[in-house]
Amino acid sequence: MAGVTVKDMGLHFVGICMKYYWGGCLFFVLFCAGIFWNVLSLAGGRFGKKEACTKAGRQPAVVLISMTIVLFLTVYDPFLVKYVIPALHFENEYYRFFWILPVIPGTAYYAVRLVFALRTGWGKALAALAAAAVLAFLGTPLEGVVKNFQMVENIYKVPDDLMDACRIIHEDGDQEHPRVVFDISLNTVARQYDPSLGLVLGRDAVLYRDGSAVVTVDPESLVYRRQKVIMDKVFYGEKVGWKRFRRILKKTRTDYLVLKKDAGLSPYLKRAGCRKAGEAGKYIVYRFEQK
Amino acid sequence: MSEFVKAAAAFFLQMSVFFLFGRLLMSLLRLKKDASLALVLGYLLYFALFEVMAVPMTLLWVPLNGLCIVWGILLALLSGTAVFGMVRGRRKETGRQKYRRKVYTYLSGHSFWIIPAAAAVLLQCAFGALYQDTTVDAAYYVGMTSTSLYTGTLGRYSPYTGALMKYFQGRYVFSAYPMHNAVWCRFLSIHPLVQAKTVMCVINVLMANLIVYQIGKQLFQGEKRKADLMVCLVCVMQLFSYTIYSPGTFLFTRGYEGKALLANVIFPMVLYCSLWIYQDAAGRGAYAALFLVSLSAACFSGSSVILPAAAAAGVLPVLFLRRQFSRLVPFSLSMVPSVVYAGLYFGTQLGWIAFAAS
């Protein structure tokens, strides 16, 4: 989890990570309630109340309980985590330990047991619907999937504008591997679609300039400083002299720039030595004349 | 249109390979026939073998075509062996009898509950196929496939810029999953984005659901209708578990990434193996499955270094409860790939080991 460190959080690190991990979902609470119920039913069976202990409850669900206990005594133990995780440089990825805890299958298992406690088929069907509704109510809908579904534009799952931009670049020039500055919205998808392109702005450099704490970039390196000048101007609209910008485009051997129309950079780029090669939807493809 | 046809062909071919691998493994381990378990075990066996083949070839700078040839031969041999075994086993029964028996065996015990379960799985597959993601991590996972395919190499060029790298990235080099996509793209001339983000995405969603179904069968001691309902409820919970860290988010928005497989295939498989060992502590099948989980996890993601912790949390209490202390040996052996992988991973992360890429 970016920005959550053992150094800052100390013994609260595990708790904070778990809080961020579940967000507004209450499945973890349901899972704990199920485990508690299961432990009680097992204890009921142990102390003679046979009816409280079903065959299913007595048998494999023990694995859910034992696994939960062992995980909380080991990889979720704040004292252990405080010393081991930072030493292994695993703080950013620590949340993946929560994937081990079988909260979702465990909760579903207890819900199914409740549903099948009813005798009639209709009763079970209604109870199953009610269980699904309760689970949906206690969870948070997936953004982009359940809420505001992000539908594909084409079979390649990239913006149509990117496909047009790549076509324009290949039709315009004769370079086998043109080097391109893409708008921030296209930069990471461009080479997935067209690997013949060379990117002037590396993914990590773009993320670092955007404030990401996860990637490691040397801000003093010549490569990054050059990339930063380009990003300062074309992504963040900062003031960069056109002569300096032109010099950086030469140094980085840039051939094309694909930038948003509404960025209003056309006059500036023209002065810096770029000409319009074509339009691709919301974007303009500029060719940079190296000479 | 041709990409749609290729995508459909890639889906059916890869699913067939996973099924045949699974059948072969199950007949070797003498496990009871189960089509869904065969698919899951075949999937794990496939990626375990692929990891063993692809990682040394990557480090030795073998070209992509070299891996394609070797892997193609191995696929043909193993699939052919599986088909031969299946044909030989079925010769005694007549066609119609066999078909009726199989359909009856498969559907018995499901009753009405198989309908909502199938609907839930289809819905998830549709989400996986039709969702357009915007995550930056695809720049590596799919970019590496595209770049390797374009350059004809195995992971030697940076997926971010297209430049030849000096050293392999320690965090990723031991996970050969993007190369699996590159190999199938070379086999079928399919675009890497289609193979990774549509074909494998749907296959991965199917595998995640089959594992939930198997977990349900173990927890409910073979009661299929309860396992069916469990698949439906897990589907609802996955769709309503939004944070950027949850397995559901990874499955539906980044189902083509190794990390999504770790969360939705590997760790649920650890739970499944723990349940299997609980039910049949003396059987070899669960430990063999655990070994495949350990090896294939390395193929999917660097974060599989935490697999031994997961397996220990699942299996050790079971062995203790069952008083099967002698089974600590097969359990430890099954974790050897993960432990070796963890050593290499942390060695490269801490700068002790580096592998030249050029």
Shape of chain B: globular
Specify the biggest β-sheet of chain A.
5 strands, mixed
Main-sheet strand order of chain A equals 2-1-3-5-4
Question: From N to C, what is the helix and strand string of chain B?
Answer: HHHHHHHHHHHHHHH
Strand percentage of chain B lies at under 5%
Count of runs of 4 or more consecutive helical residues of chain B: 15
**Low-confidence regions of chain B:** none
Measured as a percent range, the helix fraction of chain B is over 70%
Mean pLDDT, all residues of chain B? 92
Series of secondary-structure elements of chain A, N-terminal to C-terminal: HHHHHHHHHEHEHHHEHEE
Structural summary, described in words:
The complex is a heterodimer of chains A (about 290) and B (about 350). Chain A is of the alpha/beta class. Chain A is about 50% helix and about 10% strand. In chain A, helix 3 crosses helix 7, helix 7 runs antiparallel to helix 8 and helix 12 crosses helix 13. Chain B has about 350 residues and is mainly α. Chain B has one domain (about 1-350). Chain B has 15 helices and no strands. Chain B has helices at about 1-30, 35-60, 65-90, 95-105, 115-130, 140-150, 175-190, 190-220, 225-240, 245-255, 260-280, 285-300, 305-320, 330-335, 335-350. The mean pLDDT of chain B is about 90. Classes of the chains: A alpha/beta (about 290), B mainly alpha (about 350). The interface between A and B is large, with 82 and 87 residues.
